[in-house]
Amino acid sequence: MRRTVGILLTVSLGLLMTTGTATAKTPSTYLALGDSLAWGDGASVPTRTAYVPRLDGYFHGNAGTTDLLNIAVRGENTSSFIAGQLSAALASIADPATDTAVVTLSIGGNDLGDLLSVPPCSADPGSAACQLAVYTAMVGVSNNFPVIVGSLQAALAADPGEEKLFVVTYWNAFGGTGSPFEVPIDFALLGSDLTIDCAANQVDATKVGLNDLLACIGTVLGAVVVDLYPAIGDNALIYTHIAEGDFHPNDDGYAVIAQAHRQADRAS
User: Which residue(s) pair with 68 in the sheet?
Assistant: First the structure.
């Protein structure tokens, strides 16, 4: 009888240990990447009211994430991202102690946005010299963005579990303001056809804007595209600090950006 009880206790303990091991979960990470938009510039409390912390709770409930890691860098463009942030992102995804479930990426806006503060674009955004500068910047994005998204997708494919990578387009920082910059920026973002059309881009380079590049490359490489251009629309004065000379969103704008991510997630 004593021998039987001993055997049963041993078996029971073994089952408890096995069960404990089986139910132990690897931390699931939401990794936020990009520029000042992901960092939260313009939010009253960047760690609470920007779009990344707003999405943290959403992904916790809908994707099962347990941790948030935001390594976005203010002022980042596609070239500087490749030179620095990309390596940190790939190392985080490859970390065997965690499972990256969601990645959000906002990059590319500064490649064009930085032109607005310096000649020739700061003086005359519609000039031929400025258009040449915009074209040169977009060539850089067309070369860099596939490297960024492709590298992230390859790392995520090697990571356990299911993953989603979200990429964003950009809104017109002067949308609805009547500024001399409003129309040239529309063309810079959307091309001469003022729309995202991946098929048309193959035959007419004038129809290629920044958002065409981000959306079309993102789609081809399997990312979920979050189109922020219509989300903000002509409401820059409502959703951003542009009246104060700052194109970053305010808290209401970040709420709109977070909602656009949620909608894109549900539709994907």
Answer: 30
Count the neighbouring beta carbons within 10 Å of the beta carbon of residue 5. Answer: 9
| Averaged pLDDT, groups of 10, the chain, 268 residues long | 41 39 72 98 98 98 96 98 98 96 98 93 92 94 98 97 96 97 96 91 85 98 98 98 97 98 97
Q: Cβ distance 257 to 228 under 8 Å?
A: yes
Within 13 Å of residue 34, how many CA atoms lie on the same side as its CB? 25
Find, among 147, 150, 176, 168, the residue nearest to 225 by Cα. 168
As given in the structure block, the two tokens for residue 42 are 């313009």
Three-class DSSP labels, 224-268: EEECHHHHHCCCHHHHECHHHCCCCECHHHHHHHHHHHHHHHHHC
Collapsed DSSP state (helix, strand, coil) of residue 212: helix
Q: How many Å separate Cα 173 from the centre of its chain?
A: 17
Identify the pLDDT of residue 6.
Answer: 44
Q: How big is the CA angle at 216 (ends 92 and 239), to the nearest 5 degrees?
A: 75
Torsion, Cα 243 247 248 249, to 10 degrees, reads: 60
SS3 67: strand
CB 145 within 8 A of CB 215: no
Question: In order of start, what are the domains of the chain with their CATH numbers?
Answer: 27-267 (3.40.50.1110)
- What is the DSSP annotation of 72-118? --TT--HHHIIIIIHHHHHHHHH-TT-EEEEEEEE-SHHHHHGGGGS
CA dihedral 53, 214, 170, 192 (to 10 degrees): -170
